[in-house]
Amino acid sequence: MAQFILMSKRAQVWSLDLIIAGVIFLLGIIILYYYAINYSTQTQTQLNEMFYEGNHASELILDEENFGILVEGKINQTKLEVFDSLSNSDKKSLLGIKNNFYFIIEDLEIDGVFVPYIGIMNSSEVENLIQVTRLTIYKNKPTKFQIFIWT
Amino acid sequence: MKNKKAYFFSLDAFITLTIILAVVLFIKPPTSQVVQEIDLQKDLITVLSSIKIGEINNSYVQELIANNTITNLNQSVLEQIGEFYANSRDEAEFLGNEILGNLDLEINVGLYFNEMLISISGSLPLENSTEVWTSRQIISGIDNNINSSSRGFSSRAFLFSENKVNYFYFGGYVGDGNISVYLGEDVVSAKVEAVFSGNFNVSINEEAPTSYNPSLGIPFAFTLSNGFSQGENILQFTSNEENLYIAGGFIKITYNDTSSTENLTKFYFPGIEGFINLYDGFYVPGKLKEMEVFLNYSSLYNVFLSIGNTTIYQGNGSSVQTTLTNSTLAGMLDFSEMNDKTIPVRFGLNNVSYVLNLKKDADVYSVTDISGSMAASCSKGGFCCWFLQDCKTESGCNACGGIYEDKISSAKEANAAFINSVLSDASNRVGLVAYSSSVDSSNTHLLSKDNVSLINEVNSWIATGTTCICCGINEGVNRLLSESNSSAFRSLVVMSDGEANVLCDEQGTLDAKQDAIQAACDAAAQGIIVYAVAFGTDADQTTLEAIASCGEGSFYFGSVEDLVAIYEEIAEEILNAAYYEQTVIGEGFHTSVYPSSYISVEYEKETPYGLIVNVETEEFGSNAPIGSFNLPSDGIPYEAKVVSYSGSKWTSKVGVYNNATSLWDNIFDLSEYGTQYIELGDPYVVNIPLDKLITGENLVNVSLGVNEINLTNGSEYDKIIYSIVKNISSFSPIVSSADGCLWTIEFEDGTNTTMDFPEDYSGDENCSYTSESIIYNNNDAIDSAIYNLFTSLDLDSDGKIETKFEEEDLTINSIEVEGIPFVWETEAQVRVWR
Fold first, then answer.
1. pLDDT tens column, B270-314
2. Contact B644, B250 (CB under 8 A)
3. Is B467 in contact with B456 (CB distance < 8 Å)?
């Protein structure tokens, strides 16, 4: 009789353990699920914002008005150098970019020196990166203009 | 000790949770890098349009400049590629590839001119793409470098149609008997449109005939394309049923004939074998100089020929061939009164009592059975109808598997159709008598032209009582005798679905069926035709057949499904019967006039040089009696005619609207020739003097009559046939090529054809001038010239060419002009895809 009672108690303890384990496990699954969904949406929203920024910035840069670098549809070296001379924060402010950016053009030259890019390039960790490609005329050649924005 | 094991599961789960949290908190996904090629196609168009060819930093371009392939350094790169393309030069592709290749784009890009791929960058074919973006720009230029090897082309397209079109017009009435028409030589095809008196056969040059079954009273059209010979052609119309006649119509004959137009017109008579009875007219298209009449006929009875109101010939004999010379005719006719006029012509037999062309108005009573058996019923529904369903409704009857018949509704529907059909001729009247055990005046309607009132009466009928057919007939007869007179075509349409079971004192045969038959016989004795309809399988067909027989009418058997069609058929029979009354002809006459007979007029009129384009307008339709047509400003009016289907009447007046006075100018008035129209010809076609026409819209009004009073509207089937003399050649501008095309062409008669222009063209370019699409290369001189020619031949701008021609009719001259500046234009496209 005593043995029967002991076995009965053991069974109850195991059952409770199993229930608690199940609850913990389900909690973990739910956390992972919500995190995955929210992260995906967050990322897409962020990318969309960055695309908007990239498109907008490329329109502003490849423009003949204001601080745009074009004259008669072509990149004007003087205007390009004036733009380059702006501080990074001013560039970001003028272009309405919250994040980091730089753009590259083939054979890009500033003050007689070939440079690889204009904008901000640092070693910070990259989470999201977008690239917008446009075509323009630089040094009398049809050329790719690529702007990168990252967070 | 053993109880400690109970924490194991929880511990495992906790560790798992910890791992998940660690992943969420400390491990980030890899960098998201997305590339977007925004509006590359727009950028490329802009770039190529912005940079001048003379300033582009490109070794290939410098080479082309150095060897003078590129001479205009101020052109944009896009314009330079366009010029190479327009000149069909390979440099277009090389230059495009050079520029696209240097861009080193990650996406697929293609440069197109006029949908033709010039250069491409990328490995994915456009056909396999999932997304495509396109930008377009029209570019044009002038190649004006006299020292260059650039060549311009100009072409001239000249239509010399071997096919000439001529019309033969039948006249207002041509009969009675076999009719033949002389068509002439080298006939390609003949389109016939005419009102025929009944079924007929047509044979060409006495070959095997083809039978036609036209609808009566309305124009019937068909086209003959085979069986013509290069020599003379005769078209014969015969009938197996009775003497045939044609009440207006024409034959549009297409000839393979290069002869030029002469100011000599012969109006050939139609051949008639049977009973010469021709009402016609002819036109003097200018100032009448000379005139001649040739008659070829056989008649033992005296024939006469009247022009206007003057009888110019009387005679008889076997195989008579006689010519009335100009001097003879000038002594009888006042030529000065015939200039630019349509003159009525009458050719017939003297001393014959014609039943003249007077249509009788139709007065008809519809005598309809509304006895109890006509009520809606359900048969074969069985016990189901007694206990389960309400079989008085169609759905209940159907649910019981019964057969539902709503005879009264069918009868009402048939009567409505009948009323509308008979009253389609505004001079007809319809009355209603609905009978059952007797005739209740509340179920009748007097003769009326008011179809709304009549149909309202029909819709008020309720089926009840027994069947007194003789009551219905007697009531209809009495009403016709009191409301109508013998000048009208009087008839009854008697319908019953059962057996006569009520006697009539008027007939007094003591048998209800015999009373009904006798009532019909009595009606016929009073000149009233009785048509009989046995409605449904329970109808006493024998009695109703006897009623129709004694009533000199037709018998019909109908079911619920076809009663409407039967009533419409009877309506048509009545309409035709009223019409036939006018054309009763003598018997035993065997006379002939042969189609070699003619009236020839020579007149003064300057014929402009060019191609004569014939146009037939749509029928007047609901606009009758007024029709309209538009004369284009780039053509010279040559002829304009209104064709009038006068039916039983005469074409009495034709007016053209004068925009200056806002009045109708009479261009034809039959009353000028006499008040007794029955003695005059009836022109089917009335020519419109050209000085009455204006560029733009012209309105024509046609009136009919049997005398100068009480004119009625012309037919809805009337139309206008006019011809324009057009410039038959066209030029292209000087453009970069003159290769040609395979053209698909649609003609006004609805036929399509494909032709190579020039004839030896062997390329794969396809062009079209159809109502569906107009496609051609405007940088090709030949294509441009042909397009311009087609546009001028498409008078109504509907994408269909009025003048039919063959490939060999169109002559094309292409002139190569060296060093002459020429314009080119093309659409440049940049397509981007992935």
1. 888 888 888 888 888 878 888 899 999 998 888 889 888 888 898
2. no
3. no
CB contact under 8 A, B47 and A137: yes
- Express each pLDDT in B231-242 by its tens digit: 888 889 988 876
- Cβ atoms within 10 A of the Cβ of B526, count? 12
Contacts for B827 with CB less than 8 Å, ≥ 6 apart:
B113, B114, B115, B136, B137, B138, B139
B605 touches B263 (CB < 8 A): yes
Q: What is the mean pLDDT of residues B628-654?
A: 84
Contacts of A130 in chain B (CB under 8 A): 33-36
The continuous run of DSSP H or E covering B533 comes out as strand B529-535
The total number of residues written for chain A in this structure: 151
- Calpha distance B294→B36 (Å, rounded): 90
Query: Would the ipTM clear 0.85, i.e. be above it?
Result: no
Report B:33-72 residues touching A (Cβ under 8 A): 33-40, 43-44, 46-48, 50-51, 55-58
Overall residue count recorded for chain B in this entry? 834
How far is it, in rounded angstroms, from Cα A93 to Cα A31? 38
Helix, coil or strand: residue B215: coil
B55-64 contacts at long range (C-beta below 8 A, 24 or more positions apart):
B55/A140, B56/A140, B56/A141, B56/A142, B57/A139, B57/A140, B57/A141, B58/A141, B58/B98, B58/B99, B58/B102, B60/B94, B60/B95, B60/B98, B61/B95, B61/B98, B64/B91, B64/B95
- List for chain B the helix, strand, coil content (%; round to 5): 25, 40, 35
Is B548 in a helix, a strand, or coil?
Answer: helix
